[in-house]
Amino acid sequence: MRKHRLAACVAAAGLVGASAVAVGALSTTSAQATAKAAPVSRAQTVVGPTSESGGPSEARCPEGMRVLNGGYNAVSFSQSNGGEPYDGIQANAPLADGKGWFADLMTGRVQARAVCVPQAEAPQVAVGPTSGEHVDSDARCPDGTSVIGGGYYAQSWYKNGWGESQDEVTASAPIWDGKGWYARLFAGTVQARALCS
């Protein structure tokens, strides 16, 4: 009888031990699965300095990184005595070398912002030709790549005798076939820039 109890205790201990090992293995496997499932973000946001009035702001990526996307924050936006805006966003685009993003207001102060990723993961920047007046500029992606973003850089911008904006960006969008980015101003000349991957 005593032998049977001892054998039963040993068997029970073995089951408990096996269960503990199984639970431990399950916990380890779950932790590994969770670790694999959790995306590791290697993107970094860089905020450029606030520009002087009418000057550009550049958000430069750290060494070894390139721009994935970007934008701007108008710190001041010029307005008339009646309170109507008369400023213009003359640039909102990746830098031509792909190392950041820049923005420019006609008269106000702006701060560029860039989302940067490791160089090996970053898109290429394609720079379009400067357009004529009222004409599109197309930045075409290299063969084998497609557009994932873009922007524009106004080369000329019309204003009246009081310095108020008489121009506007009427297009800044992907080209219909997905192979580039185009831009157009109401009156001035512009250069499109595409992010291609």
Automatic annotation (TrEMBL):
Signal peptide limits: 1-33
Swiss-Prot/TrEMBL keywords: Signal
Protein name: Secreted protein
Organism, scientific name: Streptomyces murinus
